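[stage:ingest] chain + small molecule (NAP)
[stage:ingest] validated
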Amino acid sequence: MTAASSSAAGSHLKHAVLIGAGRMGSAMARGWISDLGSAGLAKLSVVEPSPGDDVRAAAATKLIDLNPAPVVADIVVLAVKPQGFGAAVETLKAWVGPDTLVVSIMAGVTIARIVGALGSAKVARAMPNTPGAIGMGATGFALSDACGEDEAAVTAMLLEPLGLVAGPLKETQMDAVTAVSGSGPAYVFLLVEALAAAGVSAGLDEATANALARETIVGAGALLGEFAEAPGELRKQVTSPGGTTAAALGVLMAEGGMPELIKRAVEAAVKRGAELAKEAEGA
Ligand SMILES: NC(=O)c1ccc[n+]([C@@H]2O[C@H](COP(=O)([O-])OP(=O)(O)OC[C@H]3O[C@@H](n4cnc5c(N)ncnc54)[C@H](OP(=O)(O)O)[C@@H]3O)[C@@H](O)[C@H]2O)c1
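[stage:predict] done
[stage:export] tokens:
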């Protein structure tokens, strides 16, 4: 699935600049800094008004250049908030030349908007999710037409510190990526809340119900990560015929149950993503 390939990441090590080292940006930077060469980088510059400890420490040991004067870079990684993009464009242009690969993780900002604003035709648009901040995320990405295999490999490699990377995908699929993995952690957190509340209804005290529900999701997630079996297979392994889990799944999987609800939720998120993109174009 991932397009990452250390050998395919370009024939020479590159100069990358990270614009915005907040939660997501600093998670990527930590991964790159641990081995710049493996990330395909000769040099890393970071532009960030309020850098965290990791970035400050890397700057103190000269591993990175922090807030240097802009020069045209091989790669510009945009990790500022989408609403900050417009204000940053004039400053960003100084880092971007006609051959610069611009990798954006800004939610909902289209490739066309970035090409139009910054003038490079080579743009990668990625959508990470919050677990990316601890390297356990899932990120999908799409590329502009001017990008080829080299840009796909470089982009995948740069995103790898966030966790799993899927792509290149079509840009038309990015609303689906947002709805599945971008918003997905919220669905899982809601499941923990609902399970805990149901536990209280079933007679547990709140603290016990919260602890059991939370750790059940953490443990189930760890099992999924550990074993190659399909989730349906893992589900069957905890479902004895005629048992308690089967009784619960009979409710969850009935018509209008969880699969249908999740489908409707994802459809609503896809629709909202398309609306937000239209609103941003008009802004
Ligand atoms: N968090 C997620 O789960 C998630 C998921 C998908 C996509 N994303 C995308 O990832 C991007 C970053 O999100 P985040 O959660 O990491 O946000 P964040 O923690 O707010 O990080 C953004 C950083 O950029 C800095 N900044 C603002 N303007 C700047 C400029 N002109 N030049 C350089 N740095 C600037 C901010 O500094 P100040 O705070 O001092 O302004 C902040 O440290 C967003 O575009 C978001 O849409 C995030």
